[in-house]
Amino acid sequence: MVISANFKTNKTREETKEYLNTLEQNLHPSTSSEIIIFPPTTALQHHIGRVEIGVQNSYPVERGAFTGEIGLEQLEEFGIRTILIGHSERREILKESQDEVAKKFQFFAEKNFKIIYCIGEPLEIRKEGREKLFHYLENQFRDIPLEYSNYTIAYEPIWAIGTGITPTMEEIEEVLKWIKEKTDRKVIYGGSVKVANIEEILRLPSCDGVLVGSASLEVTDFIKMINISEDISKS
Ligand code: PGA
Predict the structure, then answer these.
(1) Homologous superfamily (CATH) for 2-81+151-234
(2) Do the beta carbons of residue 88 and residue 69 sit within 8 Å?
(3) Confidence band (pLDDT; 50, 70, 90) for 42?
């Protein structure tokens, strides 16, 4: 299972270090889950342990004149080999187009990065019915090389992100299953995942893990979620 945490614009470098230390100290040596933390860019750091550090965003370039952005060279300094691409906050707030998202995917795939690729629909689309929903999601696969070996798809309905609203388990399973028909890579869910609902989400037949935002900020809660995933893997 993939249990990942997206800190977004939360936590300082020091707070992230402390979080990682607590997390590593509390992980059971036999933990089998793939644990990934996406801290803010200023908190990227070399980290040796069970937990993998990924970057929330990067410009698809080695280096150059792209004010305010970071590229491959800055990631390599910290040994970062994992990236989140296509998060709805980047698509919606930062206006990243599908073309830009796909370019990023292609660049980092060429560099053999592990990619967590996010897709998800806004509420208006969800309300328009299944046909519109799947058409919308299909467009988020445009120019994405699904034959690439090292990626995971994260389905994150925008209306469930940071809202405390989770879709029904049937709604989640339907989309995860649809994604699994396109690719045999892992498929995870994100959107208001928390200690109280992670178990039923992870037990969905097509679910290979979660991407957690707000509920991951408290390290004790994130540890609880990892432990729940371990219990499920064993049972
Ligand atoms: P949330 O965020 O858990 O706060 O809903 C999830 C995400 O945006 O990845």
Answers:
(1) Aldolase class I (3.20.20.70)
(2) no
(3) very high
Q: How far apart are CA 34 and CA 150, in angstroms?
A: 13
180 CA to middle of ligand 1, Å? 21
- Under the banding of pLDDT at 50, 70 and 90, the label for residue 234 is confident
Assigned token pair, 201: 């989400």
Q: Report CA-CA distances (Å) from 133 to 127, 141, 226.
A: 8, 13, 31
- Please give the number of the atom of ligand 1 that sits closest to the Cα of 154: 9
Listed residue (145, 163, 149, 166) closest to 210, CA to CA: 166
Atom number in ligand 1 closest to CA 191 = 5
The residue type at 180 = K
Q: Are 184 and 194 in contact (CB under 8 A)?
A: no
- State the CB neighbour count (10 A cutoff) for residue 53: 21
- Judge whether 28 and 13 are in contact, CB under 8 Å: no
87 among known catalytic residues: yes
Residues having CB closer than 6 A to ligand 1 are 6, 156, 161-162, 190-193, 211-215
Residue 28: the pLDDT is 87
